[in-house]
Amino acid sequence: MFQRSKGWIPGLLSKPKNPHSLEHLKYLHSLLCKNQTVTEANRSLLVETLRSISEILIWGDQNDSSVFDFFLEKNMLSFFLRYLQQKSGRFICVQLLQTLNILFENIRNETSLYYLLSNNHINSIIVHKFDFSDEEVMAYYISFLKTLSFKLNRHTIHFFYNEHTNDFALYTEAIKFFNHSEAMVRIAVRTITLNVYRVDDKAMLRYIRNRTAAPYFSNLVWFIGNHILDLDMCVRNDADHQSRDRLADLVAEHLDHLHYLNDILCLNIDALNDVLTDQILNRLLIPLYVYSLTMRKRAADRLGDRKHVSSVVSLFLLSQVFLIISYAPLVRQLAEIIFQGEISLSRKEASPEMRVREFVPPAETLEKTLESNRGRQDAADDNELPQSPSSEVFSGGEDMSSPNQNSTDEEKLLSTLGRSHRMDMPGPTSAEQGPATFSLDNRPYLEAVFNALECTENDYEALFALCLLYAMGHNEEGIHQELMDSVLMPTERCETKDHYNVLLVERLIRIINLACQHGSKVRLSTLELTIRLLKLLVYKEDQSFLQDRHLACIENARECSTQLLRNFYKSEEIFLDMFEDEYTQMINRPLNVEYLTMDASILLPPTGTPLTGIDFNKRLPCGEVERSRRVGYT
């Protein structure tokens, strides 16, 4: 009658039969009270207890508010923190993080959420020194931070950002992993930062702008740049197409970076965008992407140790920039630089102000900067915009605006753009600037793009130059038509196309002529993109603006193609079937330039073997059957 039940422990409540009840939570609480020190003997019991707590709290959130009342009354989160501070091993850490992640991911009631966040235990857990060398701990920790970031809004932000102590652990701890070796961790960090930036809280955004914007964005840009150097090295060392998977991963990562940067810019937070635009332009796009366009023309003794990429990779990356980023102040300045001239980069004899446009590492790591800034009060006025080191060049100070400054005209141009990048700056219209006024003199970057259109050996560089020009012509949100008119490049926005860039059109016609020759080294994707760009320049609503001599060249190319077609028609029995298939495919699956620039395989030298798995229109034909297919498509 008075026999004790099996497993009974003095001072413990008996285990309820219903696991989803307040009594069961009380029982779990008693277990925690009796096992406040983690040992080998109770480790498994505590892991199961923590798992059960998350389960019953989720049930209580939806069914019984008294469950959360008891959880808060007994301050049960303090047990979680106490276990972490004991350094009790990975199993407890993993289970704690998993429990918290499941809990916050499934909480729906705002009151319950406020209960969980009301004390500072969650921030204490965030800043706890976990063993991040353990992949499982790292995965659950970053997942926990990401889950918390989805709960951020104007009401909950104050549980994480303390305006009085100037501390925002959720954000600062997350961005420390921006360059983690695991891709999923880096993706989670981007998600967390975007969720933070979306919260409309002026004090929090001011903290991010003043304390973290310049160090985070400068370190991020340095990381992206080194990633690009890895991509370039992969292209240089893989002429035999043996590392395509590695190259595909690198290209996909660069696309992710650009989409992330564009997502930040599209939030239209001016204070952040000013810093980010400055860092992207002056620490990455100008010194690494744009500068590399003209590397072949520079003397070997000038800046020979400057980091750069091949012109092929540079054209490819710039194409992606203009296809993805739509933030007008950034793409407009970048297009202005490519169109109008060379920005003088730092030289040994250059002034300190001119050294900012250089791909160099930040002065210190992000983690070190965050540690030095922790808890420091802001001295700047709330409305004053702190500047990164390189943004001072564009602040409109007398050093850069003075006519006596030892800088080039292009530098002054970029400085002016930096001060007025939020305004549409109309340039010369096509009516004011006739065809005879255009020249490539003093336009080294644009000249490099035009020169890449020469297909003397193959169309390796030409394809990327076409992609870049196409992308710039279709970036309607960022590049205004007046800027395109300054280089005589009409787009769909033009009412008429009387004046077009003759130099560019003649290079496009030359590509078309080469594509119609026997044994041509011009791929079908290059030909289709050439025709599309030519139509953009000279065609409007079923009306052609081509000059007679250019139209005659097009007709001649058409005759050559027709003659080749007749030869294959006579020799191939199944030619008509192939011709019909190619025509159907061309109509149903037109070239998508955005998808084309996502394909890493085009970064490798053109190949003619189908064994590589590259699409037919992105490689050269192999054998008579494929040559006949190509002629039919042409």
How would you portray this structure in words?
The protein is mostly helical and 634 residues long. Helix content is 57%, strand content 1%. The protein has 28 helices and 4 strands. The strands form 2 sheets. The protein has a two-stranded antiparallel ribbon. It has a two-stranded antiparallel ribbon with strand order 3-4. A hairpin with a 4-residue loop joins strand 1 and strand 2. Helix 5 runs parallel beside helix 8 and helix 12 packs parallel to helix 14. The N and C termini lie far apart (96 Å). The N terminus is likely disordered.
On the 0 to 100 scale, the average pLDDT is: 80
Principal-axis shape:
elongated
Rg (C-alpha, Å): 31 Å
Low-confidence stretches: 1-11, 299-303, 345-355, 379-436
Distance between the termini: 96 Å
What percentage of amino acids are in beta strands? under 5%
> Strand order within the widest sheet?
1-2
Structural class: mainly alpha
Q: What is the percent of helical residues?
A: 55-70%
Essential attributes:
634 residues, mainly alpha, 4 strands
Show the helix and strand layout.
Elements: H1 22-34, H2 43-63, H3 65-73, H4 77-85, H5 90-106, H6 110-117, H7 121-126, H8 135-149, H9 157-160, E1 161-162, E2 167-168, H10 169-175, H11 183-197, H12 202-236, H13 244-265, H14 270-290, H15 311-324, H16 328-340, H17 366-373, H18 398-401, H19 409-419, H20 444-451, H21 460-474, H22 481-485, H23 502-515, H24 524-538, E3 539-540, E4 543-544, H25 548-571, H26 575-588, H27 593-596, H28 623-633
Antiparallel strand pairs: 1-2, 3-4
